[in-house]
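Researcher: We're teaching a course module on how sequence relates to structure. For the next exercise, students receive a sequence and then see the predicted structure as tokens, so they can try to spot secondary structure elements on their own. Here is the exercise chain.
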Amino acid sequence: MQFSAIFLLVFIVVGLLLPQSYHVQKSIKINARPPVIKSLVEDFTQWYKWSPWQQIDPNIKFNIGEPSSGVGAYQSWQGKWGYGEMTISSLSANEVAFNVLFNQEYIITSTLLFSPNTKTVTWHIEGQATVPLISGYVAILAESILGNITTLGLNNLKTVAQLSDAQTIMESHDNQNRTSQN
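Model: And here is the predicted structure for the students to work with:
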């Protein structure tokens, strides 16, 4: 009995001392034109093509608000891991930033950065766990899970963007060939 009480006390104290914030940053090089990549990210109606969430939870349901793209675009979801909402908070030539509210208590910021010169996309997520007594452990778990999810999402984005860009280029060449033959 005494050992379990000491273990529980140590578990709680360590949990209180661990950082409660988490930070995930992953990058990938995508061989597609930046406007093609960005169009997949800044419009929530395009997310189904690459977003990792449906692979993780096939039963997740999304609601896309109006507008569906640009600053103020909004989507919400309900799935086995909970519910949430995401809003595009800022948009520039090189980034799309989001605010995410998860289960009405976790506020997460997320940014996708585009480096046109190197064709690199970086996904940055940060937040803070707010679970009493075990937030430090939750933050560690969140970093691990979100690290895997962002890697999956970036790989999906790479595949979709490269295929989409190649198809657009092929269609453009086909149209040019038809015009020059007439």
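Model: If you want an answer key for the exercise: The two ends are 89 Å apart (CA to CA). Strands lie at 21-29, 61-64, 74-79, 82-92, 95-102, 106-115, 120-128.
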